[in-house]
Amino acid sequence: MKTLILNGSPRKNGDVAFLLEQLVSLLPGETVRLNAYTSGIHACEDCRYCKVKPGCSIHDPMQQLYRTLDTFDNIVIASPVYFSDLTPPLLAIGSRLQASYMAKRFRNEQMFPRLKNGAVILTGGGDGNLDPAWDAAVKFLRLMNARNIAPLAAAQHTDHLPVSEDRQAQDGVKVIARWFIDHAGSSGTGY
Known about the structure:
- The structure is a single chain.
- By secondary structure, the chain is an alpha/beta fold.
- It has a single domain, classed as Rossmann fold.
- Helix content is 37%, strand content 20%.
- Strands 1, 2, 3, 4, 5, 6 and 7 form a 7-stranded mixed sheet that branches.
């Protein structure tokens, strides 16, 4: 089992990192992490290159991600929630999945033919709503051809409950790990 983690947190030892460490400790196989803040991946420029040609005109580390996405069985999107959404660098990576959408919509091609499993981990405090962040993450997972999506794991009260004490969030991560293990082998080719 091979898992890609797209980490949208700028904090190396923050709430998202805590939950990701727990998840990685429970997963068999290889785990590859990509931090959105240090990735060097730029946002989509809406140049329309991908409307008529495969791939993307922007030559940055996203090209490597395009090439390797179909080697993963599972994809995790993990992010703190800023103003009810994913962090801007993670949204920038997601915007580059426009190439996948355009391939299907205008060229009837599947950019990532291998089916994958997906999961979302969100953290936040305050009175924001997690739904917009969840919706964006699921859209991005679908554009990477993740069809089986695990239940959300979330720590929604980090302003007064440290994630290290949030049993519900930690249990959510355990559910994701178990879910990936139970769904191993359900990835493959299809759409």
